[in-house]
Amino acid sequence: MATLWENYETVAEVYDKYRFPIGSEMELLALGKLGRPLKDLHIADFGCGTGNYAKYFLGNGVGKVSLFDGSPGMLECAKKKLSDYIANGQVPQCEVITLPDIPLADEQFDAITLNYVLHHLNDEGDNPETDTYPKITKLLQNCKRLLRKDGLLMIVTFLGSGQLSSSYWMPVTLKTIYEQIAPLTHIFHYNTLKKSLEDAGFKDFQAFIPLHETILKPEHHFNPDGPFDPKLRKAFSCFGALELASRKFGTPSIDILLEKIQGMKDKKELDELIVKYEEQRQQFGCATVVVMRKQ
Description:
The structure is a single chain. The protein has 295 residues and is of the alpha/beta class. It has helices at 8-18, 24-30, 52-59, 72-81, 83-87, 134-146, 161-165, 177-181, 190-199, 218-221, 230-235, 237-249, 254-266, 270-284; strands at 42-46, 64-69, 94-96, 109-115, 147-157, 202-208, 288-294. A 7-stranded mixed β-sheet has the order 3-2-1-4-5-7-6, with helices on both faces. The radius of gyration is 19 Å and the shape is globular. The two termini are 33 Å apart.
């Protein structure tokens, strides 16, 4: 499946080398709000990718996790990773689904996760001025329909432009690039996301920021040579968005950004930039974990 700026069929083969399930610890803790043993819970992971979140949940005692993704390649990686859990019946469903449509029966899950999904659901009818996002609205309504009474919706996403710009140090070298990325993606602010979820039928909004976690595995996140690695760039959709912005708006391409980084390395300035970025990341984090309950 390809989103507006990323072809996940080509990403699947390199994704796990660089990424890990940021926010999963907080989601696992949030499941305690259901007041039931983890072994009795059934979670639906929409946009499951290669199954990193599902593996974490199952490995920490969750009874069942069903997997859904729009990319057959990503889903195949998840099946291989979770083959033992599939064999013993802990992954009841493993299906290709293109969001926001979810052709599944009502009220069958105790919790649903949407991890780094919302910003990919662009639609021609989107209007930030009126907070109108047709695909996201339909997805949230479907999630409510699929949840059992008092079930939880758990979301990992960027929240606000400050968090987006602190998600990775490289684009900080040209801060204005985020002004070009903004029209291509959904970077909700706190009140906007809260209202969208409440309008869809959810209550008890809570938001947490895992300041101790980075969006890439730490050995890659802080590597000054990381952006020069084509596989890393493929595994992090930020780079795909930058290339799309370059084509649509004429903003600097990845090649120009890499030239700038190389120049900073040559001048011994890059380490200082990464230190400054880390100060920003520790303030805003790389992601927000949002938890709400079905009304």
